[in-house]
Amino acid sequence: MATTFILPGERVRAQHVNLKLGPGLLQHAENDQDTKIISTKAGELQHSANNSKWWIEGNSKRYIPAPQESVVGVVTARSGDGWRVDIGSAHPAYLDGLAFEGATKRNKPNLKVGSLLYARVSLAHKDMEPELECFDAQTHKAEGFGELKGGFMVRCSLKMCRLLLNPNHFLLPLLGSRFPLEAATGLNGRVWVSSKETKHIIAISRCIESVDPDGGGMDEAGVHQFLGTLDI
After folding, report:
1. Labelling 11: which of 33, 70, 135, 222 has CA 20 to 30 A away?
2. What whole-number distance in Å separates Cα of residue 207 and Cα of residue 99?
3. Are 42 and 58 in contact (CB under 8 A)?
4. CB–CB of 132/122 below 8 Å?
5. DSSP secondary structure string, 3-39?
6. What is the pTM of this model?
7. Which of 105, 66, 68 is nearest to 88 (CA)?
8. Which domains can be identified in the chain, with CATH numbers?
9. Edge-to-edge strands of the sheet including 4-6?
């Protein structure tokens, strides 16, 4: 993946039939013929292998919601027919009670304050509160989204979350080869992890924190050595 440092206000020449813009990029139309992609923050310009997804990787500490991004949230309150969810952004997100696979007005999840959720951002606009959904937008199937039961939520940098979502990153496959684990990685600086034994959950959490570029940046050899010191 090519990487270029970019400053706010610079034009990005991103083109694709199914172009999707992530954090730090804004589509601006001056007229019907001229539509520009403008950066809104400083950082490294990133794009997916097929150039369909573009975003700016910065060192922001606060998560800025973007459509179609996966997040780990905490239910903070009941609101009408849905819930308010803390996703680490400036404003809480809203999750409708029908935004689940197979949900109806009579058959909706019974979420409690404090419940953990793995959800997708369905609406993100600077002048509106973000909205969430717990199903795949195309299939309307859960596809892993919904309430996260048990386990533990690890907080890390936004950059670490993107690293964990890269299938070529070493950490989760390495840990999975040592003991069974489940993980749900949000792009909002939160990772939910679960395993059969508490000591394994603790080991996973400590490894994520150690590998985090903002927390030490331990490499694969360091993780192997660290795991060797634990009673697991």
Report:
1. 70
2. 34
3. yes
4. yes
5. -EEE-TT-B-----TT-EE-TTEEEEESSSS-EEEEE
6. 0.81
7. 66
8. 4-57 (2.40.50.100), 70-148 (2.40.50.140), 152-228 (3.30.1370.10)
9. 4-6, 43-47, 53-57, 20-21
